[in-house]
Amino acid sequence: MSFSLRWLGCATLLACLGGERFCFDPFLPLPGAENPLSQADFAGVKRFFLSHGHIDHRLGLPGLLQRGALVYSGALPQKGLLKAGVLEEKLRLIAAGERLSFGGVELCALRGSHVRFDAPLVLTTMLSPRMLRFRRNAAFLLRAQRHYPKGETLAFELSHEGKRLQILGSLGLGGELRPGADCLVLPYQGRSDLPRAALPIVEALRPKALFLDHFDDAFPPLSRRVDPEPFLLQLKKRFPEIRAILPRAREDYWF
Fold first, then answer.
1. pTM of the full predicted structure?
2. E strand intervals along 74-225
3. Nearest to 73 by CA among 216, 136, 84, 189
């Protein structure tokens, strides 16, 4: 049985397994974003999962919650959603080690790890002329960040009829992921030395396929368009057996 992934920009991902649909880290991009979205892109989604609480993983989520939709997250993101007016009945608390079943799909929340932003990246971002060009976005992001604490970082593993999909919400490796998944979703953003940060994760998990996300300019000026090609060239050299996917937004990829 196959499964599909659809990337919607930033770390936002739609996964379909066994007839069940899941959305991970929904985010409605800011003005000037590379991949603009609307609520229509999330039509029919009833299950949302948050890897952590940062703004680029849940901005706009309250407006996406149609009748019957539920949000699964850690404690801090849940508190933020309650303050934003989301009804408690729509929220489900989930922690590392918990397993949930949806039809024939088993979802396991695992301990994840968040990328550590390095000084060169922070300095080049804050001193970039883009801070002036996108000053309204910058002011909004700097004001809003205190309302979006990270909290616990989760990774997710979904399994159905022998297929395994692993989803990371940030470029960091937790200690509970099993190697050899059919596909690993890897966010590619947050460091000035991205290949050096990403390759050890791939080496540890050795997935059959690697699906990159979060490499686009989704919330300028604090985000940027990342060129994954240097990493993909190193990946092909060191792990030629791994199928590497640099997705286009809104396209479906099958595994």
1. 0.96
2. 91-93, 99-102, 105-111, 154-160, 163-168, 183-187, 209-213
3. 84
Q: Note the pLDDT tens digit of each residue in 212-235.
A: 999 999 999 999 999 999 999 999
Residue 74's nearest CA partner among 90, 53, 58, 98 is 53
Angle subtended at Cα 20 by Cα 18 and Cα 25, rounded to the nearest 5 degrees: 125
With CA atoms as reference, report the closest residue to 214 among 173, 242, 249, 253.
249
Percent of the chain with pLDDT over 90: 95
The structure tokens 């407006």 sit at 63
Per the structure, how many domains does the chain have?
1
Establish whether the linkage from the previous residue to 221 is cis, with ω within 30° of 0: yes
Q: How many other β-carbons are positioned within 10 Å of the β-carbon of residue 68?
A: 8
> Which residue matches tokens 């659809």?
6
Residue 208: helix, strand or coil by DSSP?
Answer: coil
Indicate the SS3 state at residue 119.
helix
Q: Which residue range(s) make up the domain with 183?
A: 3-254
CA distances from 183 to 47, 149, 159 (A): 20, 29, 11
Residue 186, both tokens: 């890897």
Please list the alpha-helical segments (H only) found in the chain. Answer: 75-83, 119-126, 130-133, 135-144, 194-205, 229-238
Q: Average pLDDT for residues 48-63, to the nearest whole number?
A: 96
Q: What is the CA radius of gyration of the chain?
A: 17
CATH, residue 65:
3.60.15.10
Query: Average pLDDT in the 65-89 region?
Result: 94
CA distance 81 to 48: 13
Cα separation, 120 vs 118, in Å, equals 6
For the chain, what is the total number of helices (H) and then of strands (E)? 6, 14
